[in-house]
Design brief:
This protein is of the alpha+beta class and about 375 residues long. The chain contains 17 helices and 12 strands. The strands form 3 sheets. Strands 2-1-5-4-3 form a 5-stranded antiparallel sheet. A 5-stranded antiparallel sheet has the order 7-6-12-11-10. The protein has a two-stranded antiparallel ribbon with strand order 8-9.
Amino acid sequence: MAPLGEMIEAIYASPVDGSGWRDVMQLLRARFGSNMEALYFLDTADQRMRIVELQGVTPVWLERFDAAYFLADNPWVHHASWGQQPGAVRTGWQLAEYTGDADVLRRSTYFNEWMRPQHFEHIMGVTSYAQDGVIANISMFRPPDMPRFDDGLIREMQALTPHIQRAFGFCMRLESATQSERLGLALLDTLAEGFALVDGHGHLHHANPVLEGWLRTGDLLEAKAGRLQARAPTAAQQLTALIADTALGLAPHPGGVDLAGPGGRVLNAKAMPVRGANLRYLPPRTYVLLMFSEPRADDAARLQQAGERYRLTRAEQRLALHLAAGTSLRDAAERCGIGYGTARGYLKLLFQKTGTHRQGELVALLLGREQPG
């Protein structure tokens, strides 16, 4: 049986992995014991189905689906307002209870001419989207010799449903994106910095290879239940605030924030809002593009050596690193996640410990550079 954690990871990988939904369908089969799994659109106006991913149905039977499903005697069509609510998990036996008719599905053409010949008996599905006559479902069938999908399996599917909705919504955004937008995502994968595309709650929708490497290491950042997080508590609060503020257009962070982890390692995180185009199936939504970068290796090494020589604290070294990059003291304070007054106090201590009197003189000393005249 596939662990739920593995299934959630596969769900969030689906928008950027060509075989992602196929993997999800296979994991659903292993977890729920189904013999058919499908992710698809139903267009009620055109009375047709469009498959995103399907397992367990041959092309011959797929061609016959529309003619059997979109009939007046199909209770799933007749009771669509009940069974096709976004986020709803429904089963065949729940349909029977809702209608008060134990054989309501078994009498239909859909069941007798499409389901029964393929040895499909028990149904469980979840609607991830429904609007303007377009419905997106994940459905699973079980054969007659297996028990129905019980309450425990329904609860498991309900736990997966929010993740499916988020990942599927992002798939739709990518599908409707222009070619230049798709090339933009591909370009991120070639850059030396770490990039992530998240929603306003931090749910991860795309990570370029650099960021994926850092996530595998897991010492600074992690993807927990599909959500991008910093490991250290203070850094986690900073990253959450950065994402939320950027998504809402509040309190801009022009210099980003510094996320500190164990061993003195620091990542600077910058953010910008990305507004999706108006979509036919989903309302507009703001995503956040995050860029993570590490300090220049040579400057970081020199500062570490100077820090040991002058007995600087880690916080003092972090402030000095931003000052060395030409950042103003106020912006450096914001990147370090400290107040301006605290930064001024750190700067005075740096002057005292190094015997310098000006910011330029301090930076030149710590980095081993000559101070310009």
